[in-house]
Specification:
By secondary structure, the protein is an alpha+beta fold. The protein has one domain. Helices cover 27% and strands 32% of the residues. The chain has 2 helices and 5 strands, in the order ββββααβ. Strands 1-2-3-4-5 form a 5-stranded antiparallel sheet, with helices on one face. Strand 2 and strand 3 form a beta hairpin. Helix 1 packs antiparallel against helix 2. It is globular.
Amino acid sequence: MGQQAFFHAPHGGADFLGIRKARNGGMEIVYDDGVTRRMVWRVEGQAPEGKLSDALRVAVGSLRVLPTLYDELKKRAISIERVAG
């Protein structure tokens, strides 16, 4: 992965979404609500980083971050597997 991408909610919430490189070389999506919940998903297969960044940008900009994230990943045919949280 060339770059990491991180996004914070623009509507005053503490929601955070990011893409990071996992220890095994794959990509992971990280979500943190700023209070109690932190979740990590492994991206299955090879998804273009641009598609992932677009999905995260749209999701973090919505008021319902997680449902929007799932919808945006589904639209882009990106499969994920929950690994933590």
